[in-house]
Amino acid sequence: MKKKIIAIIVNVELIIMSCIVLVPVIWILLSTFQANGVAGKLSVSKLTLINFKKLLSETNYELWFFNTLKIALISTVCSVFLIMVTAWVMSRFNFKGRKTSLLAMMILSMFPTFLSMTAIHTLFQTIGLMGKPISLIVVYSVGAIPYNTWLVKGYLDGIPKSIDEAAYIDGCTKIQTFRKIVLPLSKPIITYCAVSQFMLPWMDYILPNILLSNDKSKTLAVGLFAFIQGRESTYFGMFAAGALLIVIPITLVFIIFQKYLVQGVAAGADKG
Amino acid sequence: MLKRSERDDEKSMNKKKTAFLLSMVLWGSGQFFICKQRLKGVLLFAFQLLPIIIELFTGYWLEYAQGLITDFSIRLHGGFFTKGIWGLITLGEKAGGRYGDHSTILLINGIMAVIILLLLLVVYIWNLWDAWNSAKYTGKVFPYLILVPIGIAFFFVVIMPIVFTFLTAFLNYNRDHLPPGQLLDWVGINNFKKLFTVSNWFETFSKVLIWTVIWTLASTFGTYFLGLFQAVILNHKAARGTKIYRTILILPWAIPQMVSLLVFRNLLNGQFSPINQFLLEHGLIRENIPFLSDPLTAKVTVIVVSIWLGFPMFMVMMSGILANMDQSLYEAASLDGANRFQCFFKITLPLVFKATMPNLIMTMAANFNGFGLIYFLTQGGPANANMQFAGDTDILISWIYKLTLDQKMFDIAAVMSVLLFFIVGVVSLWNFRRTVSFKEL
């Protein structure tokens, strides 16, 4: 009897929690397909695609989308390369200043990038890259180094060094060893870094807002937020539609790579 | 025998001294002539030439030497380094207009010049050290070869902006002094004094700081324990369909935070909040709940939403730990007569706690700087007229953002960034020192 009651409580709790999680999700799904943007009054019977049409015709959604995709792809490739190389050197070579630089990176990774936004703004103004997507790519790629290097270094430390040494004995150069031994062995952590770097530009608001302020080079998050700012009630449907179009792929990517993401978070904590 | 080795010693001592003195004047010449390391010597010499060439190319020193310039001043005719240092010290002399000085650009150029000079100084000292040790250092160039380019990019994008922010704390960079219209000046520690002695500022600062601490603790432990609870439920023997539930419950982590936050802002919106309407229609409440407009309710709402967003991460991590728990521990405990609650509190909890401690501290640091949550949900509101440009739910970092972008008080914002940096830095260093990885670094 007692067991049965506990079983019921457990399952009911799960249902309630799922409902709490799902309410906002279902609500945004429904408001996407409503004709009038007014948040609140939703009906399941009158579903339309008008918000998507309006979104594509009245805003620069497509442009924002491809801006973001470009930035996300390039900065993912650049940052993964930089992270892997740095972490590999830090993990496999003993040299003067190694400990100091690791420690410095660790402290610097705790300083939120956007606290230095005034400086970054001035810097890119001075070198004339203001408003160009490359400024954001540079900040994302280089800014990813401190935290992720720690993470990847921890992972690489776990791969026995004897494998590298065997490769050296067989006549591999350092770069060859890196390409043919180390990189293939670190696929899980590369996946983690790549996925998290790829997801970053889609929803980051502060830096793109400062660096890419003209309408032509806006990213999705900036465009959507500027669009909805102050007129939530009228344009909410369109915002929801725009958000849904990115939420679906990102959520899918997340759920597919869930295993790696969890590993990555756990590994980061272990070593950081 | 002994005499000969003494002579050898003396000889090598002389060699050391000559190499050292040569390298002191011309970088790398000791390595080049005395120790016969040609490539290293040439490279070091290139490092000495580099700043001189840059300085000559960017400045007008050659014209000045030819007597072509009569009214020479560093402001107009200095090169990258001299003008940079001049700019860093004076921050400009002529205000406004097309030909005036732009203080922040001068500042950033100055920082660049000083950083490059400091790096060159490091090279110079290494050059002397190497010459003294008869250029013994031959091995491992490889790591440096790879890391130096990355390090340079890192210096410009990460370190320089932080230095800039730190220096801004000692400037009068605010609404009344905005380059390029006006010049900036060094004001020493006046900004720090202002924050701590002007009662209005200090009161706001302490109020915001206290709320930041409360918010950090409440949201972190809220997510932590809800995550633990949910993980225990998911791993309970009686739970059915856990795969489906797990996928549903992970959604708040998977959905981009900004979208969820804007959705919540609309769900909880003051006038046409769907949640309020639902509750009103079903007679559960008499009037709208001011989710985001009443100071206290808004604070509670912000914490509840942050728990909604944060618990899945801990849930997933902890259910992994629970699933892999060593069953023999429980068997041993139950043989000793422990009941289920004792097992949970004495075995499960300590083990989970130990495994997730670093994550707990990292989440704490992230929440302490949890700008997005506050900004997108309440924008720091409801506004509070008694506080200096801060709302009731503003935490330090969102207040800094407001001061910078809305109020253009870069100086005070920088002061607080410096304080924030030290708070977070000390906590994370402490966290780091107690982990194993520091010893095996």
From TrEMBL, chain A:
Entry keyword Acetylation: no
Name the UniProt record assigns to this protein: Sugar ABC transporter permease
UniProt keyword list: Cell membrane, Membrane, Sugar transport, Transmembrane, Transmembrane helix, Transport
InterPro entries: BP-dep_ABC_trans_perm, MetI-like, MetI-like_sf
Pfam families to which the protein is assigned, alphabetical: BPD_transp_1
PANTHER family: MALTOSE TRANSPORT SYSTEM PERMEASE-RELATED, MALTOSE_MALTODEXTRIN TRANSPORT SYSTEM PERMEASE PROTEIN MALG
Family: Belongs to the binding-protein-dependent transport system permease family. MalFG subfamily.
GO biological process: maltodextrin transmembrane transport
Native source species: Anaerosacchariphilus polymeriproducens
TM segment ranges: 7-30, 71-90, 102-124, 130-152, 189-207, 235-257
Gene Ontology, cellular component aspect: plasma membrane
Cell membrane in keyword set: yes
Cellular location(s): Cell membrane
Residue ranges constituting the ABC transmembrane type-1 domain according to the UniProt record: 65-257
SUPFAM superfamilies: MetI-like
Superkingdom, natural source: Bacteria
Membrane topology: Multi-pass membrane protein
GO molecular function terms listed in the Swiss-Prot or TrEMBL record: ABC-type maltose transporter activity
